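Journal club side-thread
Mid-discussion, someone asked how the predicted structure for our own chain would compare to the paper's figures. Pasting it here so we can look after the session.
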Amino acid sequence: MEMSELIAKDLLRIGAVFIRPDEPFVWASGIVSPVYCDNRLTLSDTEVRGHVECAIADAVREHYPDAEILMGTSTAGIAHAAIAAHLLGLPMGYVRPENNDHGRKNQIEGKLSAGERVVVIEDLISTAGSVIDVVRALRRAEADVLGIVSIFTYGMRLSVQRLAAANVKNVSLTDFDIVSRVAAEDGYISPDAIERLKKFRDNPTDDSWMGGRR
């Protein structure tokens, strides 16, 4: 079995990715979505956690062999960056959404030197806005950002465009299309729901995938 399929099965089994096209979720951004993702749950299942962290470490080895430090996104990417960095024997740190309001008022936590080759660890990518903010903060600190490793990506057109515009590579352990296919194969959703899910992925602002449900 491909690792991307194994991770998809893991996420579905523990409810880290929950697909509900007939009873959609509302994200904090206001987007109405048939899918909700909470990859923090992977930390609570020892078997899934092992699969995820080993896969992150393998992705860094394969795609970013020159990496010198991992930087997690705050807060969801921090634990994954710490565990994967331990497996790789690399240092790690994390990046806040903005500067701390006390102490040294850091945005980047952990020792980071100018020119150091960094891989960002993110739990999921939807529109990619927050992870690109992390990349920009690291670049302002003169880090050499090699790219991102994320657990799950929706593959939305907006995120693809934003990542390309920011000139940053993303490698995901699994993605929306793989999870949707595995969900249909394993009976979490009906096979005819896949086209509705793809309509959402292609254009989240177009609610035609809901088939008139509101």
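Post-session note: The CA atoms of residues 131 and 192 lie 32 Å apart.
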